[in-house]
Amino acid sequence: MPFLQSLADLGPVVRMYLWRQPVYVLTSAQLVHRMLVRDSAKFEKGFVFDKARALLGNGLFTADAQTHLKHRRLVQPAFHRDRVAEYTELIIEQADDAVSSWSPGSLDARLRMGELSTDVVTTALFSTALTAEQKAIVVRALPAVLTGFIQRALYPHPVLEKVPLPTNRRFDAAVHDLRAVVDDIVARCAPEDSNVVSLLLAARDEHTGEGMDAVQVRDEVVSLLLAGAETSATTLTWLLYELARHPELQDEIRQEVASVTGGGSLQVDDVARLTRLGHALTETLRLHTPNWILMRRVIEPVEFDGTRLEPGAEILFSLSALHRDHAVFADPAKFDPDRWREGTVPRTSFMPFITGNRKCIGESFAWNEMVVIAASVVARWQLVLEPGCRVRENATSATVQAGGLKISVAPVAPVSVPRNISSVAPKCPMRTSDVDIQLQPTLVPGEGQGSR
Ligand code: HEM
């Protein structure tokens, strides 16, 4: 990470080599924003996604430019605001059940958050309760798949993929296991169900009238699991770490949850009222952005700050580095939720879910999921870092993990206060997707000028 941050000192466009392949790193948030919004039609996803597509299919997350717009239109209704509110009701129940079953003592935060976010995505989106064995398979397989396809893209020669290295065997087994679980999810879905799978099976493109075949539906389910479960689990794990490190903030959020819920169960509308928790989550998404490196490939000539890039040029950009820019964020290495009180960070400088036509489809889902789970945890448990815990960033996968994390939990006495509902719910600083995403492949009107 320090290496990626240091590249900004070399200029807004930095050429590097991966083996013999030149890659261009964009270190300026304005250029990244331009690439994702104004010039998005000039780019496709890039070399790692070519590999991922071949191995994992052409679901939204990996989809090539031609397929993407058509599929995005089909999947988008599953993330409509009303649907997300329904999912949130389910998530509240699931979080309550899971978190109240914990025992005092050491908590494997990464494992618990992985299980819960897998549960939440599969139950809400696919109406399927996985068996304990399937859940264990998914939680084990997702990090192996996400690490494996990046490693394969970086092999100096494709022949290495065929060598029976332990890493190749782990990856092949993980892809196989994940597909088996997903096939079961699709097979269990009846057309009359109301979930993403039935929606995809029934969906017709409004322009062409075409639907999706079973393989395309399976690819979308893999895509949603891959993109959805790991990122939320990673962010939640970092949030629990920061709350354990900042006991006063943890108490403040516990009080906020108690005052918003009156000590009872959380309601869907309460999510937007938990502003202090919203600040802490936003700061976690800034300082511990899960997707630390992303990429694109040029398909039409483009010029960035005097550097002309031809079709085929591979581009990397690091949201983690952009989110630690001294020019935008005072003392950027500090975890400081207060920086979000004023809401003056330019839209171009903070985009954990990116922006433009490939913006995360699950942003609202993820936001509600993470607020609900974090609220459920602090309402019941005091989080404490165990003695000797030294956390380091571990960026060997598609997401940055909290290596060395050791957390303990102790029960807290329920806080009973009158329910305090202000008539207008204050907006959390990060919510950008209350308005459904524009599906034009190029320009999203108004992007780039506003402040949060
Ligand atoms: C903390 C939580 C999350 C973060 C930070 C996050 C971040 C991102 C980012 C940065 C991208 C763009 C990747 C690229 O274009 O290279 C993305 C895409 C995507 N995300 Fe998320 N995500 C989160 C949660 C979710 C959830 C919960 C779901 C689904 C349930 C989801 C589904 C997707 C899908 C399907 C795409 C591909 C969208 C497209 O290309 O049209 N994500 N996400």
TrEMBL record:
Similarity section: Belongs to the cytochrome P450 family.
Matches recorded under InterPro entries: Cyt_P450 (IPR001128), Cyt_P450_E_grp-I (IPR002401), Cyt_P450_sf (IPR036396), Cytochrome_P450_Monoox (IPR050196)
Keyword terms, alphabetized: Heme, Iron, Metal-binding, Monooxygenase, Oxidoreductase
Keyword RNA-binding in record: no
PANTHER family, per the entry: BIFUNCTIONAL ALBAFLAVENONE MONOOXYGENASE_TERPENE SYNTHASE, CYTOCHROME P450 FAMILY 4
Protein name per UniProt: Cytochrome P450
Gene3D superfamilies: Cytochrome P450
Name of a matching Pfam family: p450
